[in-house]
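Entry 14. Structure prediction run on the chain below.
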Amino acid sequence: MKVAADLMVNIPILRYDDYVTKARGVLRDDVFRELYVVDEKNRLMGYLDISDVLRVVDTKSNITIKGFVREGAQVALDTPLIEVARAIMDAYTNSAAVVDEGGVPRGGVLFSELFPILISRRTISGRVGDVMSREPVTCAPEDPIHKIYNLIVSSGFIAFPVVQEDEVIGIVSRRDLLRAGNIRISVKNQADTTVSRVMTTPVITVTPDDQVATAARLIVDHDISILPVIDERKRIVGVIDRHDVASCLVP
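Output returned:
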């Protein structure tokens, strides 16, 4: 039986008194959506994610990450993978910190890496419409980026479908905003930079009648965070992500 140590990877670790700008640089350059925060004795305090670092738009700032630390998923080296998944689900995070007996993080298990193992080991039943998140928040390609930036920061959502004339034409995510460094200047100055400039296209979608297993495979094959769910008229009726799928697998 595989355990957390078998799937553990190195995830960036910062001290609680490091600057937010340092955390932003780490998250921008790496593939991770979260990083771990430790105290002066290197014990895990919690985690910081992309939404947190987006709160500070200044290029230079003396604001430390201490006030942004959140309590996250935490497991031991010998925790079975299904229990790791349950910890991630309960905390609604994208990873679980793997700590030793002294509370020092040794690495982490990424949900994106655990997810393919979960869906390969268990039969996924049900329709997308049964587990999707309904009434998704959307934006338009002509919306000013500072509006979406503020919405992502305040809501904690990882991405928003971009809709034009009732049709989904793109996705704008936290990472899109983080990687576009000049976007922070636009946000700070309330400039007219639009969503269309940073959104990701084309969009992969599913319907409410598709099987959850189909959505799971699309998420894995294309390494994406969310799938917009559209009806027969191509109007968006929901979204489905890894956590929605995993709710069918983790009791």
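The radius of gyration is 19 Å.
Filed with the rest of this week's runs.
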